[in-house]
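Handout, page 2. Input:
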Amino acid sequence: MAVRPGPADHHLLGPPCSPRAHVFLPLLLFLWSLLSCGLRGAAQGPGEWTPWGSWSRCSSSCGRGVSVRSRRCVRLPGEEPCWGDSHEYRLCQMLDCPPGAMPFRDLQCALYNGHPVLGTQNTYRWVPFHGAPNLCDLNCLAEGHAFYHSFGRVLDGTPCTPGAQGLCVAGRCLSAGCDGVLGSGTLEDRCGLCGGANDSCLFVQRVFRDAGAFAGYWNVTLIPAGARHIRVAQRSRNHLALVARDGRYVLNGDGALSPPGTYEAAGTRVTYTRGAGPEETLQAAGPTSQELLLQVLLREPNPGVHFEFWLPRESYGPFQARAQALGWPLRQPQPREVEPPPAETAVAPEASPARVASLAPDTCGPCPDSRGRAHRLLHYCGSDFVFQARVLGRHRQAQETRYEVRVLLIYKNRTPLRSREYVWAPGPCPCPSLAPRREYLLAARRLVSPDGTQDRLLLPHAGYARPWSPAEDSRVRLAARRCPA
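Output:
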């Protein structure tokens, strides 16, 4: 922010337009002078600023104050005033004022003690009055009387109100941006960079859906060092828990519930809320100085734990590698009580090439024809999820088939998808059948069991599952535009 004085008007280069001057000037200068005189008065665009001067000393000897720098507008005859501000103010922080020091606004009001005002010879003692409309006027209350008087503007660097962050500059209350310049409005991006564009970090957002086979603590995800703008939420009788790097619980540990409030953890403050309803949240601005482990204390089936945070780009790869190695948050292995291994499991040919000849013949019959634009449009518009995925594995059971897939590209999703998901298909011979190590475009539906214990992605029988190709990518994007509103 700046206060601009009257337009700068420095005629530095314009020669006098008189015949006598032309006689003694060279021909080239004579022609230039004629051109200059002809253009005088016509708008030729704005002038140019000189470089910024040095910052002045801080306006205050203790506490917070302001420093100012200025520049001049240099413009030719006929040019418009420069665009922008001639003055710029920034916040300066000095040593804290000693205890008992008189506040800056109080000192300015006290300067009028004992001096006649209001056109009379009456004198008063003045103290700040904070009920007036303009916070940056020097409004002072006469002690012992029911009136106040405005003595004009306060000095630059005066706090707008006691305890507030804003400072008065040229009669206006301004706050400093992250660059320290008052009124700049510059903010930190989600990565913590002043004036950044969120391009030096990545956004991690997932939902932990594992239902759990027993009551107790279940690992949800690692929150790595450097994470910012952390938010976790869940709605159930379960409870969120947070574990520090040394293994000690920050909150809700050892089966005991911690009260809602603010907790110190990994160099940041974690705000834990738990209302009368079933919702719980954890929030922290970060950045975290070390990793944290997020858990959920299961007391009933897990409807989903939503978590998100921002992570520096250079930290994302190590986080993914460690999370995948530990099983968090891509997919935590379920205990055998939840999903006992079948006696006979079909092995994909790609997983064991040497045993292809010894595999039993596939007894599944042919699938119905599901090609065509109408089929694609029907399943795209009626599905909850459409995404490109690579099949990592296939697990056949008596009544259903489970595919483990890596999500590569999302076209449509009603709730967040993780980088790895399970997609379930009815029967041991699903149609269409997906081959491991191949990439497909899939349209799936969300299926939640009546008792809420299972939340699955379902690939319907004769549904939409096409090998991915650039042509199929174009077709599915076209289908997205044709769904009814």
